[in-house]
Amino acid sequence: MVPVFGPIHPGMSDSFDIIIVGAGAVGLAAGIGFARAGQRVAVVGADGARRDGRTVALMETSLHVLDRLGLRATVEEHGAPLIHLRIIDDTGRLLRAPPVTFDSAEIGLDAFGFNVEAATLVDILAAEADRTARLVRIRENAAAVKDGCVTLGDGVSIRAPLVIGADGRHSMVRKAAGVGAKEWTYDQTAVTAIFAHHRSHRDTSTEFHTVEGPFTLVPLPGKRSSLVWLCKPERAARLMALDDDAFGRAVEDQAQSMLGAMRLDGPRGAVPMGGISVADVVAPGVALAGEAAHVFPPIGAQGLNLGLRDVADLLDAFSNGVSDTGFARYRKGRMSDIAFRTHAVDALNRSLLAGFMPVDAARTMGLTLLGSIGPLRRFVMRQGLGSAR
Ligand SMILES: Cc1cc2nc3c(=O)[nH]c(=O)nc-3n(C[C@H](O)[C@H](O)[C@H](O)COP(=O)(O)OP(=O)(O)OC[C@H]3O[C@@H](n4cnc5c(N)ncnc54)[C@H](O)[C@@H]3O)c2cc1C
Q1: How much distance in Å is there from the Cα of 55 to the middle of ligand 1?
Q2: From atom 15 of ligand 1, which residue's Cα is the shortest distance away?
Q3: Cα separation of 113 and 36, whole Å?
Q4: For residue 243, what are the domain limits?
């Protein structure tokens, strides 16, 4: 069928240099970056991220990307610095490692990164996108993508030599481009929420490694922290059914009252855990970014940080125009970084769930070595920030 090209709004062109499908953090950041570089960009996707207690810890490489977009200071204003990262072995198993704490000063940084509410980050990016010249927002879902044509809900199509799929884990763009994806699930759900608490978090993110997965409290401004609790789906269902006070007490108990009394400060969320690994990040006329290209559990705050590195590589590959070299460059830059993070997070998560003595021994030894060997600590800290690729 010959696609219909028509004006989206009176006077609006139907052809662009780049179309981005998905107005999440990754799609909006890429849109702003390309428009600033002089490209005519359409970002297709509905407004408004859901507030479900999810925050994102943005590490140094992501802050560089936000800096490039002129948004670093605004994001930092809304977030809290992560100066210390602590891991506590709370598996209760025979082989347990002593607590390990990392300080950003060890690798010459004031902070590893900033923790900000995920929906706030999207709002900041959306407001900037609305102010950006050469960027058109089309606030609806794309229905189909084929040969550079993106069909909108009303059957109207727009076209571009490059369509970027930033449409999340169930990516329609990825499927339409025929890019294979391996998907798997974990017997875990991530419970998210924001808490006000009695004691100061002292700019420290604390990750308790439990036999069901990590239980992590990450600083927010003031005496507030965000929770990411990876646990069995049955436990998650029980936690979600508790009233606010009982939920606060359950979290305080699990945190060993480290932050004193905890009071829920906003909505909660529950996300079933799974992973996606794609066969490629490019296809003819298409590039994938963010969760359209990689999904894994929130351990070590890697997901959106990887997504914003996709954005940085997209901008490097295509800011001066769309070419075969750009596609090759983007693929070369992304495939190994994505594969490394996906495997590392999967291995760490499975090592906690295994309950198998040799795996426990390896994990415990790893954590113990991390606690004591300076160069190894610094190497791992830089890897965690995504800066030592
Ligand atoms: C509990 C939890 C905690 C996390 N913590 C961290 C952390 O601390 N640090 C970190 O770096 N990462 C973290 N992550 C990962 C991070 O949240 C994701 O990597 C990030 O939100 C993905 O952003 P995205 O823009 O790729 O996808 P999404 O946020 O899913 O955005 C995709 C957008 O595309 C839209 N869309 C879908 N289909 C269409 C269509 N057909 N047309 C148009 N639009 C469409 C969707 O509506 C959505 O707006 C965490 C994840 C979880 C689950």
Answers
A1: 11
A2: 303
A3: 25
A4: 58-118+183-273
